[in-house]
Each structure stands twice: as C-alpha cells, then as structure tokens.
Amino acid sequence: MYSLLPAAISVLFLCYGFYALASRGINLITGTFFLLCFTTFFWQGTWAVLFQAESPASALILIKLGYFFILFLPTCLYHFLTEITGYTKERTYVYASYAFAAVLAVFLVFSDLFISGYYHYFWGYYPKAGLLHPLHIMQTVVVVSRGLFITYLAQKSALDYMQTRLRLCLTGLLVYLFAAVDYLCNYGYEFYPPGVVFVAIALGFLTIAIVKYDLFNPMALAGTLAHEIRTPLATIRNQAAGISRHLPTLLEGYQLAVDHKLMEPRIGPMHMEILSDVSGRIADEVHKSNIIIDMMLASSSMEHPDTLAFERYFIAACIAEAMERYPFEAGEKEKIRVEISDNFQFQGSDTLLVLVLFNLLKNALYELKAAGKGDIRISAENTGGHNILRVTDTGPGIPRQALPHIFAPFFSTKRSSGGAGMGLTFCKRVMEAFGGSIRCESVEGEYTTFALEFPAA
User: Fold this and answer.
1) In this predicted structure, what is the pLDDT of residue 408?
2) How far is CA 393 from CA 39, 272, 326, in A?
3) How confident is the model at residue 392 (pLDDT cuts 50, 70, 90)?
4) Best label site of 104, 176, 232, 434, fewest CB within 10 Å?
5) What residues contact 311, with CB distance under 8 A and at least 6 apart?
6) Which residues make beta-bridge pairs with 454?
7) CA distance linking residue 345 with residue 457, whole number of Å
8) What DSSP element (H or E) covers 79?
9) How far apart are CA 91 and CA 99, in angstroms?
10) How far apart are CA 332 and CA 393, in angstroms?
11) Rounded distance, CA 456 to CA 14, Å?
C-alpha cells in the first residue's frame, strides 16, 4: 500500500521525460528536464521497491541505489533552471555541483560515512543518515536556492508569455522543494515521508507549463519577442525618415554659418560625411533587424507549418528575391556567383525559402569574413531526376567533429559572435515541410556546401 504513490509518481516523471525528448528533440532544455525526470524516477521508483523489501541486505542495496540518484537530483534541478532561464554563466557552478555530488557518491558506495545503515519504520526500511549526510543537505539548500533565485530574476524581466511559463516553473519547483521534509526520516523521525505528495503537486504545475504554455518550445518565445520588437523598430524607421527630410537643411545651415564665420567649425569633415548619411544607415539597420524578425517569426511557426497554403514557385525567382532583399554590407554581394542551369519548380513557400537562403548566406558571409578570403556560389540544377539547390562557400569549412551536429537545435560553431544555433534547424524544418531535405558537405580549410533537395513539383 505504501509503495503505490511513489511508484505512480516515478512512472509519470519517466513518461514526461521521454515526452519532452520525443516531442521537442534533444536540446539543452529537454535534456536537463529529462535528467530531472530520470533522477526523480529512480528516487521514487527505488523507494517504492524499498518499502516492500523484506531482508536487511536487499534493503541496504536499494537504499544505496536510490540515494545515488538523490545525490544528483538537486544539481539536475539547478541545471534545468539554468537552461530554462538562459543564465548560461551559471553552468560553471552547475558542473562544480555535479562534481561535489560525485564525490559524495563515492563515499555512499564504498563506505558508511554517508549512509550508516537503515531504520525499520512502520511502512518499511528507510536510509539512516551518516556523518557526511549534512553536506548533501547543505549542497541542496545552496544550489536549489540559487536556481530559484535566477528563475525569480528571469521572470521579473521576461516578456508576458515567458513570464507566465517561468512563474509556473517557479511555483512548481517551490512546491517540489517541500519534498525535502523526507530528510527528517533519515534522522530518526518516524512518519510516512510525504515528499511524494509535493512531487505530485509540482508535477501538475509543470504539466500546465508544458502543455498549455509550450515550455519546451524556445521558438515560441522567439516569435513573441519578434512581435514585441516590431513596434519600436517601426518608430525608429519613422524617426529616420524625419531625419532624412530635415537633417540636410540643418547641415547646410551649419556649413553656411561656418563659411560666413558666424560660428567656429566644431564638426570635422569626416563626421559631416557620416551625419549626411546617418538616416540611410539607420534605415539599413532597421531593414536588417526586420529580416531577423521575419526569420524568428517563421521559425516559431515551423512547429506546425500550413502545408495547404503551399504553391508552386520557380527557384530562380526565389534566388533573385533573396539577392535583392538581403542586407549586404559593402563588397559582399560581389563575392556571390549565381548559376542556374535548371530553373525548376518546387511546391512550398517562396517566403520560407528566401529566409532559408538568408540563413545560408548569413553563415557563408560570416565564414568568409572570419577567413578573410573566399567566395560563394549558388547553383540550381536537376541531377539524376533530383532538383537541387546548392550554396557553396570557399571559406574555412566546418570542423569534422561539428559536422554531425550542425542541424541540432542550439548548436552553433560561432558562439563568440552570438550565434543562437537555430538557423540551420529552421532550414531543416522548412525543407522537411517541403517534402525535401538538406545536407551539408564540408572539408576543413577548403569549402562548405549546403545541398537542398526538392521533390518534383
């Protein structure tokens, strides 16, 4: 009877862990959530078996097995909060906490200093705290408090949509924290450990965050953020238009005043040249930002693409549009060569394909700039009955060890420049929605080619 509730909770947590991986793929958020679910599963699952144990020897084995996972549970919780809040600088402390838990695990397995035996309560066997057990409690207090603190800070400054998700996480994990009352049983207080009840309630809050507010979809936040940025960008664009109308008159008046010695020249010729084009520069930056927003909005909608709205488009028209709309910097467009041997048609969305080309161009131009050399070739052809669009750059190439992971969410080879690791994931989702595929070939130091294969329209 005493084993039913922990057994049910353990199975539920395991199911939620696999649900996260199956529905959203493996990334830093789902991976850490799975670790949290997995350790909770072993904690409650082992206790469900322990409460049914009949011999002291088997009880001691189960106690050490269960506590092995309990040791890592607070750090898994801290790790999950670190990733869900985006406080990546906390990872150093997370890894240190894992290392500390591993040291305690050695004492748990090979000595009696952490667990010094067991109690035999009315519901069954239960672990007895050893001399080092208070260190685990101290670690739990420190890392969980830190995790809850960064979650609190994140929800205070987050947008409304993300704020709701973080508050649900915060509430659920605060309830989860009450499960620590079970530690009293390790010190001889005989009452049926109620921690499993708090775990069940916390699971309810996490369920709402996962199902209703799409906890594991980082692109949902990107879409919300993109919508929020649209308004200030429109304001900036309007202000830039006003500057472009009136600034030339002001500069002309300044120059006349200087020429007639009505005032001292306080603006140098170089700065005058910069000011004369400032509105154009602002407009260019707004244009670039709007393109990034388009990518974010498209990415957030690719979870459930509307394939019924797809139509037939010529590949050459999409390439031309991408070349026309992409915000090239000085000298970049001249590095690109377009060769279309077959102007094939595809069934899909011209807007989405243009955004895919934007992503590939952005990556290629970044690599050329980093290498200080190279060019880009865009080609469309029909090879062996397959319609293929290729984007090739002769930059530094992709390291061999990174190549298998480039389409994975949040993986980026250019973290120092702020790469989020979602661009190629977006490209892959678009091509799969079209019924096609994307693959990458690269030789480090020579070239990188992305081949987009389209089914016959």
Assistant:
1) 75
2) 45, 38, 17
3) very high
4) 232
5) 347, 348, 349
6) 387
7) 6
8) helix 56-85
9) 12
10) 13
11) 42
Parallel/antiparallel/unpaired status of strands 386-393 and 447-454: antiparallel
Judged on CB neighbours under 10 Å (0-12, 13-18, 19+), 404 is: exposed
Please give the model's pTM, rounded to 2 decimal places. Answer: 0.55
The residues, ordered by sequence, that sit 6+ positions from 10 with a Cβ below 8 Å of its Cβ are 40, 41, 42, 43, 44, 45, 48
Residue 223: pLDDT above 60?
no
Where does the pLDDT of residue 418 fall: very low under 50, low under 70, confident under 90, or very high at 90 and above?
A: very low
CA–CA separation, 378 and 232 (whole Å): 35
Task: Look at 209-223, 322-336, 404-418, 433-447 and tell me which has the smallest mean pLDDT.
Answer: 209-223
The span from the CA of 289 to the CA of 284, in Å, is 9
More confident residue, 244 or 431: 431
Q: How far apart are CA 301 and CA 104, in angstroms?
A: 46
Position 286 scores a pLDDT of 67
Do 70 and 57 touch, CB atoms closer than 8 A? no
Three-class secondary structure of residue 402 per DSSP: coil
Give the whole-angstrom CA distance, residue 456 versus residue 46.
55
**Strand segments (E) across 20-65:** none
- Position of tokens 């670190």? 82
The helix/strand/coil state of 434 is coil
How big is the CA angle at 435 (ends 433 and 440), to the nearest 5 degrees?
90
> What's the pLDDT score for residue 417?
47
- The Cα–Cα gap between 286 and 18 comes to 42
- Give me the count of residues in the chain: 457
Are the C-beta atoms of 449 and 397 separated by less than 8 Å? no
CB count within 10 Å of CB 370 equals 14
Res. 67: pLDDT tops 80: yes
Q: How many CA atoms lie within 13 A of 340 on its CB side?
A: 11
The single-letter DSSP state of residue 263 is: S
Local structure of 53: helix, strand or coil: coil
Per-residue tokens: 203: 């699971």
340 contacts 320 by C-beta, under 8 angstroms: no
Q: Are 380 and 344 in contact (CB under 8 A)?
A: yes
Tell me if 440 sits within 8 A of 375, measured CB to CB: no
3 state SS of 205: helix
Question: Rounded distance, CA 362 to CA 368, Å?
Answer: 10
Q: Per residue in 328-385, pLDDT tens?
A: 888 899 999 999 999 999 998 888 898 899 889 988 998 898 888 899 999 999 887 7
Q: Amino acid identity, residue 313?
A: Y
